[in-house]
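Extended Data, panel c. Modelled sequence:
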Amino acid sequence: MYTLYFRNEFTACDTILAILGGYAGLVDSYVVWKEGNPRKAAFRLVGSWMLSAVGFSGWTAGR
């Protein structure tokens, strides 16, 4: 991520944020939910989807 950012490849950074924010957020919140903490799982899911929304909207690339 940092390599792409410092190379000024901001569109690639947005793509990574969008994909990882969505996928990793789902997996992380699922694991936390199964461990018995549904409130923390929901909070983590919302937070990761906010990062994903930043990627989808293209804020890093300035779109």
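The longest helix spans residues 10-34. This feature is highlighted in the accompanying rendering.
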